[in-house]
Input
Amino acid sequence: MIRWIFNTRPNARPMGLGGLFKRAFVLFFAFVLLYQLWIFLHICWWIKFNPSSSAFMEDRLETIQETRPDAELKHKWVDYAKISNHLKRAVIASEDSKFSQHDGFDWEGIEKAYEKNLKKGKIVAGGSTISQQLAKNLFLSSKRTPWRKAEEAVITVMLEKMLTKRRILEIYLNVIEWGNGIFGAEAAARHYFKTSAGGLGKTQAAKLAAMIPNPRFYDKHRSTRYLNRRTATIQARMRFAEIP
Output
């Protein structure tokens, strides 16, 4: 009787390596699902409400505060209607000319970037759309991991399915980096041109768009030959840009 109470499974065997692996896989799968749900709920919230920060903003603040503990980011949300159409056109012309047509991925652009990088033997061009860049900025850290691109793709699909193009562009223009500790169109317009996001002219908007690939560098070097050339190119393309 005593033996029956304390040993209800006399023939039970310790869990083998296969069982442990299976349990670990189930736990990992459950974690991934919960993480995707967490992202999904955030995007649902942002259909109506504005994000106050992003993963990239938090990373940058942490880095800046390593040398300046009391530092704060310069960031102020501004609604879509209060952002200059010149800036919207400039950013689309510079970063994603097919923004209004694609479903989150510019496959032709990705192929061209791959061929260019292959020819140069190093990464000199990217094929990321505005939606992909937003996915990365909102949720992913600056650290490169093997699954980063896959996660970016999943988030991009969620953004495209749940938000309008107008909302995607609105959030993008409010959270991207535009200098050392400078985030969003309003802070950038104030920092570089002493005006509001709605007051930006064509040349100013084109210059801000030209800074996007390397904003901290251009924060310190605002009149390089390449930046001026790139600004002129973007300005010439702006009239062809379709904004939502």
